[in-house]
Write a structure and sequence with these properties.
- It is a single chain.
- The chain is built from 15 helices and eight strands.
- It is of the alpha/beta class.
- It folds into two domains: 4-30 and 53-136, no CATH class; 195-407, 3-Layer(aba) Sandwich (Alpha/beta knot).
- The strands form two sheets. Strands 3-2-1-5-4-6 form a six-stranded parallel β-sheet, with helices on both faces. A two-stranded antiparallel sheet has the order 7-8.
- The model is unreliable at 22-57 and 409-415 (pLDDT under 50).
Length: 415
């Protein structure tokens, strides 16, 4: 695994080799120039003819070397990447790709046009290497997909040929083994039809969950938007787990925004049985029905309110600790609550208390169907959990909180 120090050393060696090559070219140039007394004689032209200079040395070499002086200063003084201009950043990225490729690292063959802006704003080398690895895997996926498409095309041509032969012989034009069976073939369109049938009744009864997509400007990196789209896709796949799931609204989803573009690039919104709109949820439903779920709220959620419309904030930026959902609920004067996670689950020391959108949806739906918080919080991954409190532990904890001030154990940590 190549490190940052190794990469900087390699780049410095490359620049030193270029400067050494320039010195050799300059020596060859001056050795080919006529002596000084010949230059001062009246019969000799004061200018040096092109034949007197080495043909291998051109003005382009000097221009290129002068332009690379900033690169030598950047590597020598360890300057900040963000202080360079766009052309210099592009040159540094190209050198990094060449160095990593020669070292056997996983780098893409080319950088897509939409990724140059993200790379130019990424200051750390390790972060850029992460993007290189992602683009490398994406190239492999595209190559594999192209190979599969070619195989499917050949298979489709062979199937059409066999179909025409079957029709010519007067037989059934189908390759499906269960064509004459009483069991029907079950495909993806049938799964979508089942989800639509499940969501039709809650949509009529206004049993709705809202995902607020109005935090697009808070996602500084493209991978956050990609993760948000993945979480919504996981949510869509989990609908069949529940008997009567709530209908999902994607509000504040701008058609010309980056999130909408990411949806269309990965999975078109037409394939999801959700309602998507640019309109705010305040213009669609009564404000008194809303409950905004926020981890920064002081109000603890005790039970599922079947008459309320719960709002889940579409935020994936793990580096931001700002109370964005809580602040938005306060500005819009909407009720806000937080999940009582600490009463039922103790997180590990190295894991954060952040939950994905699909996990929050599964928790709400389980609580809606069972009313049991212990069952609902089973959707929190085990890798994040240190202890899951049982019903007995919860009862003891409540008794401890109730009588601790009388027993003088208020400062003792409960275990």
């Amino acid at each position: 695994m190549i490190t940052s120090e190794m990469l900087f050393s390699y780049l410095i060696r490359k620049v030193v080799e270029q400067r050494s090559s320039l010195c050799i070219q300059c020596q060859r140039l001056f050795s080919s120039v006529a002596p000084a007394e010949n230059l001062l004689s009246p019969t000799t032209n004061s200018r040096i003819s092109p034949s007197q200079s080495d043909s291998s040395v051109s003005s382009d070499d000097f221009n290129e070397t002068n332009e690379n002086e900033w690169l030598w200063a950047y590597l020598r003084d360890r300057q900040i990447f963000t202080d360079l201009n766009e052309a210099q950043k592009r040159r540094v990225i190209e050198l990094e790709l060449q160095t990593l490729r020669e070292s056997g690292e996983r780098v893409p063959e080319r950088i897509p046009d939409e990724k140059w802006s993200e790379l130019s704003t990424t200051a750390l080398l390790e972060s850029r290497k992460t993007i290189y690895g992602y683009l490398f895997l994406r190239e492999l996926h595209k190559k594999k997909r192209a190979a599969n498409v070619a195989i499917n095309d050949k298979r489709r041509i062979a199937s059409a040929k066999k179909r025409s032969e079957l029709l010519a012989d007067g037989r059934v034009p189908s390759n499906y083994p269960g064509y004459a069976s009483i069991y029907r073939h079950f495909g993806h369109h049938h799964e979508k039809l089942m989800r639509e049938q499940k969501l039709l009744i809650p949509a009529r009864l206004n049993d709705i969950i809202v995902i607020d997509c109005g935090f697009e400007q808070e996602h500084a990196r493209e991978r956050y938007l990609s993760n948000l789209v993945e979480q919504i896709q996981y949510l869509y796949a989990d609908i069949n787990k529940f008997h009567s799931p709530s209908f999902v609204y994607l509000c504040n989803l701008m058609k010309d925004g980056r999130l909408h573009f990411e949806f269309n690039r990965r999975s078109p919104l037409e394939n999801l049985c959700f309602e998507t709109t640019e309109v705010s949820y305040l213009d669609l439903f009564p404000k008194e029905k809303f409950i905004y779920l926020s981890p920064d709220s002081q109000n603890e959620m005790l039970e599922y309110d079947h008459d309320a419309i719960y709002i889940i904030g579409g935020i994936v930026d793990l580096s931001s600790k700002k109370p964005l959902t809580f602040g938005k609920a306060k500005r819009q004067q909407i009720r806000h609550q937080r999940l009582p996670i600490d009463r039922y689950v103790k997180f590990g020391s190295g894991s954060g208390k952040t939950l994905t959108i699909d996990q929050v949806f599964n928790i709400l739906m389980t609580l809606k169907h069972t009313g049991n918080w212990h069952e609902a919080f089973k959707y929190i991954p085990n890798r994040k959990v240190a202890v899951r409190y049982t019903d007995v532990d919860e009862k003891k904890k409540h008794e401890y909180e109730k009588y601790s001030r009388w027993t003088g154990l208020g400062n003792v940590e409960h275990s």
